[in-house]
């Protein structure tokens, strides 16, 4: 859990320091813009951008019941952010699993990717797809 929030917290601290120093130098508007930019970066790199993560076991159970895809992801992953943002409101139709919060999920991703924790990895109809095109996944949602 700490690992997922490390980058966003660091970005907020840098934004506070950078924005505060700009404001102290007599440019409060520039300081505010610097802070806003770093807050936006912190949000984009935080787990808040993604739907609530499930455990691997819970995602598999739900996927078996409703047939929805399972998306394995991790905070800070640019490809995961790209997939999430391009899916838009349809992202909530998939079951999202954070591999940093669930060792069983990380093991499933390693098994599907020759020992690598490559994300996003999407499980659809019993087959794993590594870093699929957002348009491809959107069609399956």
Automatic annotation (TrEMBL):
Coiled-coil spans in chain: none
Membrane-traversing stretches: 33-51
Domain Glutaredoxin: 70-128
Entry keywords, A to Z: Membrane, Transmembrane, Transmembrane helix
GO molecular function, one term: electron transfer activity
Source organism superkingdom: Bacteria
Protein name: Membrane protein
Species this protein is from: Streptomyces filamentosus
